[in-house]
Amino acid sequence: MTTTTATTEKKSVTTTERSATAILDRPAESVPLRRPGDRRKILVGFDLGTNASCILAGPAEGKDTTVSKIIPTVVGYAREGLVDGIIANNATTLIGEEALNHRLQMKMIAPLEDGIIAQVEPARDFIRRVRAVIDPTNSAEIRAVIGVPANAGQPAREDIRNCAAGVFDRVLLIPEPFLAALGFRDESRLGQPNYVDPVTNSLFIDIGGGTSDLCLIQGYFPTADDQISLAFAGDAVDKLIEDDLQRTYPNNGLSRATIRSIKEEHSYVGAIRKPIDVKVLIGGKSHTLELGDTIGRACNRLLEKIYPALTTLISRASSDSVAQLLQNIVITGGGSRIRGLDTVIQQKLADDGFEAPKVKLAGPEYKRFVAVGALKAARSAREDQWQHLLA
Length: 391
Known about the structure:
Layout: H1 15-18, E1 41-47, E2 52-59, E3 67-72, E4 75-78, E5 93-95, H2 96-101, E6 106-109, E7 112-113, E8 116-117, H3 120-134, E9 141-148, H4 154-164, E10 170-175, H5 176-184, E11 202-207, E12 212-217, E13 227-230, H6 234-248, H7 256-266, E14 277-282, E15 285-290, H8 292-316, H9 322-325, E16 329-332, H10 341-351, E17 359-361, H11 369-380, E18 387-388
Parallel strand pairs: 1-9, 9-10, 11-16, 16-17
Antiparallel strand pairs: 1-2, 2-3, 4-5, 4-6, 7-8, 10-18, 11-12, 12-13, 14-15
Helix pairs in contact: 3-4, 5-11, 6-7, 6-8
């Protein structure tokens, strides 16, 4: 098993990855006609997330999307001594919802932690089965643009390449907030006087399960100084709620999945809201727990982590760009569903003297934006930008 950790240190960016600047406004590459015997090419936008992954795929020829799926990032391995046929086809390895549906019969492993690969073999098994979803015949050449956390270190990038080797044919790794901006971009509105292109000048806050990634997007491929990645996000909030529940209601027996569901339904930031009464089953019996304080403290801790990183990035923007930048701060990822996060951040910026800030939420399609941006990038990538992967 290989374990890597995220880093916010400056890291060198490969020539291939730096050249992704050209992806921004260049039209999709023209694809030569396939000759007899050539393998068909499938392009993939892949958001490999800590808790859930999104894949979009389509043929290199044209702009059709033939695969669009959100898959829980979990791998299940069958336990010893299972009754024959209890799992379809006596499968020994499953991923996503299929694995979760057999959680009692399988050992469940989350291959990612804090946004990066923590367990290499389960991660490879996950990616291998994702490929089977994209190309069931295993006959196509697969080229995937994969999102990585902002400022992911070289070891984390190498783990992705190693897990994808022999599964995908070529890859391109691009920071997730940049891809989210590309996915959020509405090409049909470019040129309209009131539309601010998020790829031209914006600041994206992408709050996932493992990391909160903040990135200045200003029309070029972001450098290390343009990005901050925090290993504090949805999973860390879950852990704070779990620990607080254990102190308040000892031996409650609530699973992390149940706690996550409670958080997703009731999360908020700002002044403490009470009461928030939540009905749960403990030991098979119904109980009502008051969780206003618990949920509020945990979510406000996330806000306390994000806000200083946000103001740091604003301070790094040029004086010529900062006025428009403050009008285009976008929150995406699962954390964007926390009630009041946009308005509280906007008010804090105003209270701290920032001129007319405007913070918006990416909206209900937040789960797809990174993958949408990745597929756009794949369709526009030059031949020399793709990195070959050898099995």
